[in-house]
Amino acid sequence: MKKLAFALVLAFLAFPCFAQEKTTKKEIPDGEIFSSTQSVTINGKTISLATETGTVQLRDENDKPIALFGFTHYRKTNATNRPIVFAFNGGPLSASFWLHFGVLGPKRIEINDPAYTKPAPYKVVNNQYSILDKADLVMIDPVGVGFSKPIGDAKWEDFWGVDQDIRSIGLFIEQFIIRSGKMNAPKYLLGESYGTFRNAGLVKHLQDKGIAMNGVIMVSAVFDLQHLLFGPGDDTAYLIHYPTYAATAWYHNKVKNKGESLEAFLDEVRAFTQNEYAPALLKGDQLSAAERNAVAQKLADYSGLSQDFYLKADLRVTNGEYFQELLRDKGLTVGRLDSRFTGVNEDLLSQNSLTDPQSDAISPPYIAAFKDYLYNDLKVRKDLSYTTTASTRKGFKWDWNHNGNIIWNMQVAVTTLPDMTSAMKRNPDLKILILNGYYDLATVFYGVERSIDHMGLDAELKKNIIMKYYEAGHMMYTHIPSMAKFKKDVDEFIDQTSN
User: Fold this and answer.
1) Fewer CB atoms inside 10 Å of the end CB: C or N, the chain?
2) For the structural domain made of 33-226+364-497, what CATH number should be given?
3) Is the CB of residue 440 less than 8 Å from the CB of residue 473?
4) Side-chain half-sphere of 216: how many Cα atoms within 13 Å?
5) Is residue 377 classed as helix, strand or coil in its secondary structure?
6) What angle do CA 436, 437, 440 make, to 5 degrees?
7) Structure confidence by residue, pLDDT tens digits, 113-154
8) Distance CA 497, CA 213 (A)
9) C-alpha to C-alpha distances, 482 to 126, 250, 469, nearest whole angstrom
10) Of residues 45, 52, 29, the one with CA closest to residue 379
């Protein structure tokens, strides 16, 4: 009897554990997809689109559920084996609604470029510049934004980092193309801003798994984050930013001689930066007073700032200082994402700008109009919250460590350029299209040029990198002429690489 009682006690104690384990498994949610039919008219032809938006259950390498992964998929009805483009924004970590509702999807928001857009009602129109006549489209929202979130034993930090992000998006793309029957279709990555930094690592990651891309489209690119950071003792960022300072001054009529065109003017500025400005900074305090004055005067002439300002700055002006100083006399500050935009200077005594006029001007219309489209046109449940940026989440922190950037157990760089270089050398048919805005002071065009020139590619392989330039900023598609050029450039790229 004692033995029987003891066995019953053990069984009773074990039962709650079994029940708890069973309950936990039930708590791992499945994805939820909302279907609708959308359409877009391009070049006079209307395309019907079978549309899915929502989440799927993302599995790790052992098929264990780790996340609900958010996306929107547009597929041309009654078409097979069309090219497919996987697109995302940057941040980190931003949702993909900027590209989605700005240039890629079937609808777009109209913006009062380059000024402020009035409050609602906003105007949403058919997007004749969409790429949906050329390819099916998947807009990706990484874990932390959109509807994407960890499930099961996974945690936010399992997804928030350079390598973690590449891994999870790589898993999603692989699982998606299997699910949708696109394994043998032409495939493309399209990323904006940090999305280009991600792309450079992701293209190699996928290629190593046997998924080779036909092409990668980089919108407002950066591959070496050192180019954006004005670090102590490092002159790189000052040099990299300078041609965009000059382009900004050219646009705002703050230069004495604008030359024949913006392109001709910038060729002159590039030559000065490389042949005079860089050697002057390299000399440090060994630069003579006469040399310092001469360089400061040229810096002033091209950039629209004063010689005195450059002398006080020791020839080194950060982007925040430039935003604030260029139009200080008019009580204005210029945009970081797009320096064509101007806004009220909130503190004329401040050394650095306090806000970004371009972001202030376009964020409310983009966010409000997209969410209206999401919940009403795409039929998403209205009790699901769509997160536009992970920075609003408590405890958000990005892990900048990347495999290959660590030497002597230290982070010596933040770059994915070696990944892209390796991918191109191992797949000589891989093509890269890079789209640069001249007035982009967030990811500057001269930085991309310097990165490409340091990849160590032979002349033939380097031809696989195609550079295009726009007279607009970071989101060049807010500018209608640039949006039309964006469409033309991307269409030609897909046509050339999908056959």
Assistant:
1) N
2) 3.40.50.1820
3) yes
4) 30
5) helix
6) 120
7) 999 999 999 999 999 999 999 999 999 999 999 999 999 999
8) 10
9) 17, 18, 9
10) 52
d(CA 439, CA 337): 8
**Averaged pLDDT, 165-176:** 98
Contact (Cβ atoms closer than 8 angstroms) between residue 441 and residue 222 = no
Q: Are 333 and 343 in contact (CB under 8 A)?
A: yes
∠ CA(234), CA(235), CA(240), 5° rounding?
125
Rounded Cα gap, residues 191 and 200, in angstroms:
10
Beta bridge partners of 189: 86, 216
3-state SS assignment for residue 141: strand
Residue 498 · residue 491 · CB < 8 Å: no
Q: How far apart are CA 418 and CA 224, in angstroms?
A: 10
Transcribe 285-297 into DSSP letters.
GGS-HHHHHHHHH
Tell me the one-letter amino acid at 358.
Q
> 294 — phi, psi (to 5°)?
-65, -45
Beta strands in 205-285 (DSSP E): 215-219
DSSP state of 411: E
Strands 332-334 and 342-344: antiparallel
pLDDT higher than 80, residue 23: no
Of 319, 285, 314, the closest CA to residue 303 belongs to 319
Closest CA to 48 of 57, 37, 59: 37
d(CA 486, CA 466): 13
* pLDDT tens sequence across 73-112: 999 998 888 999 999 999 999 999 999 999 999 999 999 9
Residue in the structure block whose two tokens are 């980089």: 218
User: How far is Cα 365 from Cα 118, in angstroms, rounded to an integer?
Assistant: 8
Give, for 268, the enclosing helix (H) or strand (E). helix 262-272
Distance CA 89, CA 193 (A): 7
d(CA 472, CA 412): 33
- Asked if residue 197 lies in contact with residue 90, where contact means CB atoms within 8 angstroms, the answer is yes
Distance, C-alpha 110 to centroid of its chain: 21
What whole-number distance in Å separates Cα of residue 241 and Cα of residue 498?
A: 35
pLDDT tens-digit series, residues 222-261 = 999 999 999 898 999 999 999 999 999 999 999 989 989 9
Q: Which helix (H) or strand (E) holds 139?
A: strand 136-141
Amino acid 286 reads Q
Residue 14 vs residues 2, 5, 6, 10, 22: alpha-carbon distances, Å: 18, 14, 12, 6, 13
CA atoms of 301 and 337, how far apart (whole Å): 23
The C-alpha R_g of the chain, in whole angstroms, comes to 25
Q: If you average pLDDT over residues 478-498, what whole number do you get?
A: 97
Backbone angles phi, psi at 19, to 5 degrees: -65, -40
